[in-house]
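[INFO] parsing input record for Alpha/beta fold hydrolase
[DEBUG] input buffer:
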Amino acid sequence: MKPDWLDKKEYPFKSKFIELEAGKMHYIDEGKGNPIVMIHGTPSWSFLYRNLIKILRKKYRCIAMDMIGFGLSDKPDSWDYRPRSHAANFQQLMEHLQLKNVTLLVHDFGAPIGLAYAINHPENVSSIVMLNSWTWSLSKHQSFGKASKYLVGPLGKFLHSKLNVSAHTLIHELFKDEEQMPEPIKEHYIKALGNPEDRVRNLACARELIGVSKWYDELWKERHKIQDIPTLILWGERDKLIKVEALQRWKVFFHECYVIPFEDGGHFLQEESAEDIANYVGNFVKEESKKHEAISN
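[DEBUG] output buffer:
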């Protein structure tokens, strides 16, 4: 049953769930064709991809999950909320759906989650679409370090639980031209984090951005397994959290890489430029499919 605060016209998808050890994980599976699997970051959920899915499901099978603790998925008390655990959950979903010839669309915190799967199963991933993301240790990253200290400190926990400051602050900082976003849309991101007690538990996600350097380093050491996968990078150049230096690193990383910069775009291009993003993604998947068919023949 969908919550009362969810606008079913804005998010007109049939909910599906997979039962995991951590609880029920929500996902949507819309359309037919080559699968495009969309992975959100924090503090978002599959709602972020709603406008892309409305366009792309006409020609492709669009799948978007809500990580445990986010969106319409369960928010268990005792789960660890570590990136490695989120990645394991995602792998279970992929095994459940038995997908092949997948395009992974990753963003933010979702990049290490999705790319961990690609590293383990490169034979199932035909292409990657990346929006502002990273997949390496952030232990020396100044902006993430400051954010983490704020979010996990005693004052941050109090403000987060009592005044809802951190969710509003993140949205204010990360969404470009926030005043142009309707208040009901912003509320979908805030309310999807659950009640104040749930939000405090989800601070583990912010803490783990810094605290799992070893896991990020393990992924980075295995990067050669995915460097030949054709990749489209769509990058908001005015992102206040993930700087353009990360884009330069990705451009060197992938051997077959196409980059489309959004000069006036911020961290959440899916909200700012959904139609453009959907068109770029659709055209990229179409062209990569043609190349794959030509090679097969």
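[INFO] The radius of gyration is 18 Å.
[INFO] shutting down worker
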